[in-house]
Amino acid sequence: MAKKLFVGGFPYSTTQDELKSHFEQAGTVLSAVIIMDKMSGRSKGFGFVEMADDAEADNAISMFDGKDFGGRRLAVNVARPMEPRRDRDFGSRA
């Protein structure tokens, strides 16, 4: 079964193809997505890589977590589900 990994700390100039290519060293990559800032359109320096199975995901974590990528240290771990956001209270307009 596929497993999604959180990948943080890569250079802002990293492309999705570069991220995918890097993680293919550990196994089959189903997808690689870089999270972009909505306002500037630039990378936020983190994203998600989906590996084909648990063994390949575990291999990617052991190969890349804490290792250098483009002059920066990667953080790689199993992605957790996004927590629901709290409602924002911008104050009432009476």
Textual characterization of the structure:
The model has no long low-confidence stretch (mean pLDDT about 90). The chain is built from 2 helices and 6 strands. By secondary structure, the protein is of the alpha+beta class. The protein is globular. Strand 4 and strand 5 form a beta hairpin.
CATH superfamily membership of the domain at 1-35 and 48-68: RRM (RNA recognition motif) domain
Q: What is the share of helical residues?
A: 10-25%
Which geometry do the CA atoms define? Answer: globular
Could you give the count of β-strands?
A: 6
**How confident is the prediction overall: mean pLDDT?**
92
Distance between the termini: 53 Å
Do you know the CATH topology of the domain at 1-35 and 48-68? Alpha-Beta Plaits
CATH top-level class of the domain at 1-35 and 48-68: Alpha Beta
- Number of continuous helical runs: 2
Low-confidence runs: none
Provide the structure class: alpha+beta
In short:
The chain has 94 residues and is of the alpha+beta class. The chain has helices at 16-23, 54-64; strands spanning 3-8, 29-36, 43-51, 68-69, 72-73, 75-78.
What topology does this entry show?
Blueprint: E1 3-8, H1 16-23, E2 29-36, E3 43-51, H2 54-64, E4 68-69, E5 72-73, E6 75-78
Antiparallel strand pairs: 1-3, 1-6, 2-3, 4-5
Jot down its keywords:
94 residues; single chain; two-stranded antiparallel sheet; 20% helix
